Amino acid sequence: EIALTQTPGTLSLSPGERATLSCRASQSVSSSYLAWYQQKPGQAPRLLIYAASSRATDIPDRFSGSGSGTDFTLTISRLEPEDFAVYYCQHSGSSLLTFGGGTKVEIK
Amino acid sequence: EVQLVESGGGLVKPGGSLRLSCAASGFTFNNHTMNWVRQAPGKGLEWVSSISVSGTYIFYADSVKARFTISRDNAKNSLFLQMDSLRAEDTAVFYCTRVRFRAGSYYYMDVWGKGTTVTVSS
């Protein structure tokens, strides 16, 4: 069973700064099945990135995803006030789905 | 508008049962695999179960296997989750999600409902 570890647990940054979020898989996974979601308090998660690097519909280009094998990264180039939220990576295997524990991006 | 609306949550005693529903609209329901994902209070996301388009392929997380049953009614654009033998640790918001899948290319959940809250407590 694949485990996803997200680091850091919390990222304290100021608006305008660059955010780099990491997602590490316990074994090599297909980047085709790696996605990232954003969740704000009291809201359902929202798809940001699929297939490791493809932006979902209406997602601003300040969000980008990269990586392969066991190491994946979500980058927010310049944080906007609405970007402070929790971010989850997620992998889809042959018969089960796994989420990382999440990274909270908070205002410094 | 593409939409998923969950219902059926509530307060139930340990050992009890509950049936969640998810009404889909704005898209061709029988073209999509569907999932249930839950989130315990203050915790992260946990996948619960998946069902393929025709219901042929069904998968469960180990934490709910043999207690939860996923099903769908394509004629009524509806997804269900029958939850039996409920435990305190099943307390969570349950989300219904739409899957986009192409073998070898992508698998992701692009539409989420707002969720329905299940509380298991005596």
Would you kindly provide a written description of the structure presented here, covering whatever features stand out?
The complex is a heterodimer of chains A (about 110) and B (about 120). Chain A has about 110 residues and is mainly beta. Chain A is built from no helices and 10 strands. Chain A has strands spanning about 5, 10-15, 20-30, 35-40, 45-50, 55, 65-75, 85-90, 95-100, 105. In chain A, the strands form 2 sheets. In chain A, strands 2, 4, 5, 6, 8, 9 and 10 form a 7-stranded mixed β-sheet that branches. Chain A has a 3-stranded antiparallel β-sheet with strand order 1-3-7, with no helix packed on it. By secondary structure, chain B is an all-beta fold. Chain B is built from no helices and 11 strands. Chain B has strands at about 5, 10, 20-25, 35-40, 45-50, 60, 70-75, 80-85, 90-100, 105-110, 115-120. In chain B, a hairpin with a 6-residue loop joins strand 5 (about 45-50) and strand 6. The interface between A and B is medium-sized, with 26 and 23 residues.
